[in-house]
Amino acid sequence: MSISKQYLKTKPACKVTFIVPAEQAQAAGSVAVLGEFNNWEAAVMKKQKNGDFSTTLTLPTDQQFEFRYLIDGAQWQNDAEADGFVPSPVSYDQNSVLRV
Predict the structure, then answer these.
(1) Does the structure show a pLDDT above 90 at 89?
(2) Distance between CA 55 and CA 18 in Å, rounded?
(3) Closest CA to 86 of 74, 75, 72, 99
(4) CA–CA separation, 63 and 53 (whole Å)
(5) Residue 51 and residue 35: Cα distance in Å, rounded?
(6) Domains of the chain from N-terminus onward
(7) Rg of the chain on CA atoms, in Å
(8) What is the pLDDT of residue 76?
(9) Which residues form the CBM20 domain (predicted)?
(10) What is the pTM of this model?
(11) Is 40:33 a contact under the CB 8 Å cutoff?
(12) How far is CA 6 from CA 9, 11, 49, 92, in A?
């Protein structure tokens, strides 16, 4: 999994691209990213021709957000390339952390 950040010059925002590679999506039919930046509502990721899933969100800078991926509506996964990890307040798992 990977995250790329592109900071905008015209306003305090960052375009963040979330990518779940095909080999980690494990032939999934759907992948979504959920986090504090979208009130834990699913942002459905688009499946690319190579099998990867991706989406780009514009987020405000100077903030930190917890997030996770949801594969096929049932399997939660963290992003190994996240900026950090914190305990989830609703389970024994951890949430990925994104700092922009």
Answers:
(1) no
(2) 6
(3) 99
(4) 25
(5) 23
(6) 2-99 (2.60.40.10)
(7) 13
(8) 94
(9) 8-100
(10) 0.93
(11) no
(12) 9, 12, 23, 32
